[in-house]
Specification:
Blueprint (H helix, E strand, L loop, with lengths): L5 E3 L4 E5 L9 E7 L2 E5 L7 H10 L7 E5 L5 H4 L2 H7 L4 E4 L1 H8 L2 H11 L1 H8 L10 E3 L4 E5 L2 E7 L8 E5 L4 E5 L28 H12 L5 E4 L3 E3 L2 H21 L7 H20 L5 H23 L5 H4 L1
Parallel strand pairs: 4-5, 5-6, 6-7, 11-12
Antiparallel strand pairs: 1-2, 2-3, 3-4, 8-9, 9-10, 10-11, 12-13
Helix pairs in contact: 5-6, 7-8, 8-9, 8-10, 9-10
Length: about 325
């Protein structure tokens, strides 16, 4: 297979394109410290051959991969985990405590995704997902750490997008690996070095109050960069944190305004999200043709709409009771 796009940053950090649907949609981050390697998120099982080829290009042996770290267990982040554990004999899987059982026994995770996609489409998008030996799984609760050859990685429980979500603070680079907690930022939308970031409210655990709190918690570390799964390094984090807060509130307002619209809720919310994001892109200075922006945003608008509808349908105290 062709070698995926690999972007190298300072402090031994690289982004490997997961080749998920299109180029630069999802990143698998590689950390290398004195010969030891860790991967943060895995893409799908179809992403892993590209990871292997990228490691070969960097002269990293499969035996030198010490950790497979998952920000959370949504399958665009964790779908390749079992294949990684098969191919990297010395690796341990590091995952949020709420996600660990689903990695050891992924039956419910797979069944839930198949109910959405259907079996044929699920296998086309995600491939095979197998159980992972519990002896190789490390649960990473809030404020726990792992050591990568003397490099400390701190795990913070950061719900809002999902209740099984960790963000990982790398003290060496003073940066966070944020999964989906700090939003989505496609490089095609960059304008003069400034990125465009927007929330992901996909089903089924969107919690706006927790999302705001998680962003604030990240910013208390004054990080230099955030490495998003969708897609990789962003700076200007104070600006983006403020924008994320504004856009989370705007998503909630859109959802609440459509709450009593019955069968029209989906189209009303979807159209309003599209209008919101295109307006913000225009303010950002993006000059892409609207058709191209629409194509880049289409999947996220669909998922955000679904997540907001699910959130509307939950009891107000749902997350306080869990």
């Amino acid at each position: 297979m062709p070698l995926p796009l690999v972007t190298d940053y300072e402090h031994g950090i690289s982004a490997i394109d997961a080749q998920f649907h299109r180029p630069k949609r999802a990143a698998i981050h590689l950390l290398v410290e004195k010969g030891a390697a860790a991967l943060i998120d895995t893409g799908t099982s179809f992403s892993i051959p590209g990871v292997i080829e990228s490691l070969k290009q960097k002269n990293i042996a499969v035996e030198d991969v010490a950790y497979i770290i998952l920000t959370h267990i949504h399958l665009d982040h964790a779908g390749g985990a079992s294949e990684c554990m098969h191919l990297f004999p010395n690796a341990r899987l590091v995952v949020h405590p709420r996600g660990a059982s689903h990695m050891a026994n992924p039956a419910r995770l797979v069944a839930g995704a198949m109910s959405v996609y259907g079996e044929t489409e699920f296998k086309r998008v995600y491939g095979e997902i197998h159980p992972i030996d519990v002896e190789r799984i490390i649960e990473a609760p809030d404020e726990s750490r792992i050591d990568l050859n003397g490099r400390s990685l701190l795990f913070l429980d950061t719900p809002g997008h999902a209740r099984h979500h960790n963000c990982i603070y790398d003290e060496r680079s003073q940066s966070f690996f944020t999964g989906d907690t700090f939003g989505v930022s496609y490089r095609e939308f960059d304008v003069n070095g400034l990125e465009f970031v927007f929330p992901t409210t996909s089903p089924v655990q969107f919690d706006p109050e927790a999302a705001h709190a998680s962003i604030d918690r990240i910013m208390r570390y004054a990080p230099r960069y955030a490495y998003l799964t969708h897609y990789s390094q962003i700076g200007n984090l104070a600006h983006h944190a403020e924008s994320m807060h504004t856009l989370i509130d705007a998503h909630v307002t859109i959802a609440q305004s459509a709450k009593d619209s019955g069968s029209d809720r989906q189209s009303i919310i979807s159209d309003a999200l599209r209008k919101l994001l295109l307006e913000r892109l225009s303010e950002h200075g993006c000059r892409l043709p609207q058709a191209e922006s629409d194509e880049l945003l289409r999947s996220d608008i669909r998922l955000n709409t679904q997540g907001l509808i699910h959130w509307l349908d939950q009891p107000a105290d749902r997350f306080k009771r869990l």
